[in-house]
């Protein structure tokens, strides 16, 4: 990224502000909203902000190191792109842009089952950096085929999402008339024509579709595929189901959305190679505890048996440092990267990463840490 771009848009919040002006309202509400009164969204941010450091100084020149090994792969930073659904609605061509960013920057990108590009396209673009997120299908044959497709497309790691046992109410989205497919009418047309950059991106990349799932429906209209999603994905995950997935998937397996220490231990006992602590970005249960508040108890319960990953509420490199200081091995962001795409188009994902990585390195320098594992020593009591 150029110096001027970092000067003009130095924070994820700057990308968010710019993205809101370029993404149609119905798509923006899907991306930015939580559920209920959105207290979980606020709680995630406030709990992270409450994690503080005591700098240790007079250490002379410091060169913080942020390369991180996970599942036998060395990543350039402990920062990954979390799975986001309906990516092509939020910014057309998003999955391909995120995959190429992951490949060039050597960080993981997690493709969602309900993303808008096929794993056969995204996997090669990600060049070994691709992970695949599974919303558990009710049909065993569909599940087997999805996992076979992900593996043959070069995805290295499977992420099973556990924290959507049922659709959440998401009242803000309802009031904004967020529908899949969008209902064409005066309201949507006005929102669209006032966002010319988004319209041009649609013309380049086509209307959003659940391309991964079109194989399993008779008609590939968005309405039919959306109906398939509602009728056939989610609400099935159990420890028995997880064991079946473990038996099929040969690579590393992550269970995402865990907040309870006993759940974390049972997932490990069932064969999970990592736990991802998350409250789905505050989008499922408004009374949920902040994800960062769940991290210490889960770490204590599992005792270092597997890596603990983290997402929910990350908006800066300082937040990444906070999660790592509390014991996370790796941190994922979803909205931050989508804000980048919305703000700047395809170059925005790389700029979002640069903001996060630079903030992490700066926090390490400010606290006197050359290695990531030293951050825990600098936590305020």
Give a brief rundown of this model.
The chain has 381 residues and is of the alpha/beta class.
Topology:
Layout: H1 3-8, H2 12-20, H3 25-32, H4 39-49, E1 68-70, E2 73-75, E3 79-81, H5 87-90, H6 94-105, E4 109-112, H7 119-126, E5 130-134, H8 140-152, E6 157-161, H9 171-175, H10 186-193, H11 196-205, H12 222-232, H13 239-248, E7 253-258, H14 261-269, E8 274-277, H15 291-302, E9 308-310, H16 317-325, E10 330-333, H17 335-344, H18 348-367
Parallel strand pairs: 3-10, 4-5, 5-6, 6-7, 7-8, 8-9, 9-10
Antiparallel strand pairs: 1-2
What does this structure look like?
- The chain is α/β, with parallel strands linked by helices.
- It has 18 helices and ten strands.
- The strands form two sheets. An eight-stranded parallel β-sheet has the order 3-10-9-8-7-6-5-4.
- Helix 7 links the parallel strand 4 and strand 5.
- The chain is globular.
- The two termini are 37 Å apart.
Please bin the fraction of helical residues.
Answer: 40-55%
Strand ordering within the main sheet: 3-10-9-8-7-6-5-4
Radius of gyration: 20 Å
Task: Count every helix, treating DSSP H or I runs of 4 or more residues as helices.
Answer: 18
- For the record, give the distance between the C-alpha atoms at the N and C termini, rounded to a whole number: 37 Å
Query: What order do the SSEs take from the amino end to the carboxyl end, as H and E?
Result: HHHHEEEHHEHEHEHHHHHEHEHEHEHH
Number of strands: 10
Q: What share of residues are in beta strands?
A: 5-15%
Shape: globular
Show unreliable segments: none
Report the sheet with the most strands, covering strand number, pairing sense and barrel closure: 8 strands, parallel
Kindly name the structural category. Answer: alpha/beta
* Average pLDDT rating: 95
């Amino acid at each position: 990224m150029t110096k001027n771009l970092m000067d003009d848009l130095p924070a994820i919040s700057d990308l968010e502000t710019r993205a809101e002006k370029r993404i149609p309202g119905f798509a923006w509400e899907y991306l930015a909203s939580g559920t209920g009164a959105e207290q979980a969204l606020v709680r995630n941010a406030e709990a992270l902000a409450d994690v503080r450091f005591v700098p240790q100084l007079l250490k002379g020149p410091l060169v913080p190191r942020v390369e991180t090994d996970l599942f036998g792969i060395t990543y350039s930073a402990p920062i990954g792109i979390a799975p986001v659904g309906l990516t092509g609605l939020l910014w057309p061509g998003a999955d391909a842009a995120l995959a190429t960013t992951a490949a060039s920057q050597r960080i993981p990108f997690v493709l969602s089952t309900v993303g808008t590009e096929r794993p056969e396209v995204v996997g090669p673009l990600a060049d070994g950096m691709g992970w695949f997120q599974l919303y558990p299908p009710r049909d065993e044959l569909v599940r087997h085929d999805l996992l076979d497709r992900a593996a043959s497309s070069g995805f290295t790691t499977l992420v099973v999402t556990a924290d959507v046992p049922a659709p959440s109410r998401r009242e803000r989205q309802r009031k904004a008339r967020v529908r899949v497919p969008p209902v064409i009418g005066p309201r949507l047309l006005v929102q669209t024509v006032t966002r010319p950059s988004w319209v041009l991106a649609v013309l380049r990349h086509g209307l959003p579709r659940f391309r991964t799932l079109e194989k399993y429906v008779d008609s590939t209209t968005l309405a039919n595929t959306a109906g398939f999603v509602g009728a056939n994905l989610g609400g099935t995950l159990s420890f028995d189901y997880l064991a079946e997935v473990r038996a099929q998937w040969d690579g590393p397996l992550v269970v995402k959305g865990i907040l309870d220490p006993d759940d974390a231990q049972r997932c490990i006992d069932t064969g999970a190679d990592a736990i991802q602590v998350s409250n789905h970005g505050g989008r499922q249960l408004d009374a949920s505890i902040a994800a960062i508040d769940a991290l210490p108890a889960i770490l204590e319960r599992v005792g270092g048996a597997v890596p603990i990953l983290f997402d929910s509420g990350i908006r800066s490199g300082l937040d990444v440092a906070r999660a790592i200081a509390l014991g996370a091995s790796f941190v994922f962001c979803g909205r931050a990267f989508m804000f980048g795409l919305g703000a700047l188009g395809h170059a925005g994902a790389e700029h979002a990463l640069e903001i996060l990585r630079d903030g992490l390195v700066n926090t390490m320098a400010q606290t006197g840490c050359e290695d990531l594992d030293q951050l825990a020593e600098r936590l305020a009591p």
